[in-house]
Description:
Blueprint: H1 5-9, E1 15-17, H2 26-35, E2 38-42, H3 49-69, E3 78-83, H4 88-100, E4 105-109, H5 114-122, E5 126-131, H6 134-143, E6 147-151, E7 157-158, H7 164-174, E8 178-182, H8 188-196, E9 201-204, H9 206-209, H10 218-226, E10 232-235, E11 243-246, H11 247-251, H12 298-313, H13 318-323
Parallel strand pairs: 1-2, 1-9, 2-3, 3-4, 4-5, 5-6, 6-8, 8-9
Antiparallel strand pairs: 7-11, 10-11
Amino acid sequence: MALAPDLRAAMVLPAICAPMMMVSGPELVGAACRAGIMAGLPRHNARSAQEFGGWLDALRRSFDDHRETHPDAPAGPLAVNLINARPLDELIADLDLCFAHGVQLFITAMGNPTDLTRAIHDRGGTVFHDVTSLRFAERAIAAGVDGLVCIGSGGGGHSGTLNALAFLPRVRALWEGTIIFAGAVSDGAAIRAAEILGADLVYLGTRFIATREARADDAYKAMLVDSGVGDLVYTDRISGVPANWLAPSLARQGLDPANLPVSPGPRRHDHLPEGVRPWRELWSAGQGIETIRDVPDVAELVTRLRRDYVAACATPDWRDRATGTAR
Length: 327
């Protein structure tokens, strides 16, 4: 596949701890990279460029310490998540800050990625862009991105509607670049299934919310453990863009999940109860919630994912399972 060899060699698993609003901070991202997978750090989770620069400083020191104490251990790459809705000059300033801290890998979301992709490439970086449909995938390919984050049905946050069985083979037939799949992935077997369908890497979001290092309320983590697919509401009436939301989190803020107010548009919240904001008081989750039963630390979770992934890679085909033999 198209994933760069140096990235693959740095990782113990073809997985990315997805960048998540109000959840991903340097604690979660640093733990995931030190455990040997890629992790995305959202620039928008920091309140200022100064705070974000402090996060990058702290992460770089933690990675240096990790290499000193574990010289033979893989260390997953850090990617910074940038939202295209912001003015280009602000994004360029963030890019320069990232490159000054040694970050060369970016995950972009929303809008036309052409200008930001050009700026990243001019600085020698690599860009993966979020897409939720084949039309958006074709536009991102035309913009020159290096990778596509194909967000299929069942994902947490702003999710698409295409099933992985249709989405991944179609994009792979269109393109030879890096493909990352997102949508309802919470265990090692699902990571392997996405690879078979054509993905190079796989996003895990909801599963990493339910970890000790995630910047999520303890009640949010407990709700992920206690809830299932039947507790999810897929709607554009919260953030203005279709997403999966935990119905119990809506109800606790006085909203009726079966009769939600109509959103006035993306990034508009005046239809919600006063002081209530998406992702802060209203919580999102993907259909991978069905396999979440605990709140481990990140290192333990990655070890578990790796074990289950290796087992899935060794799964006999249907004929061997029927006869109880191995080839």
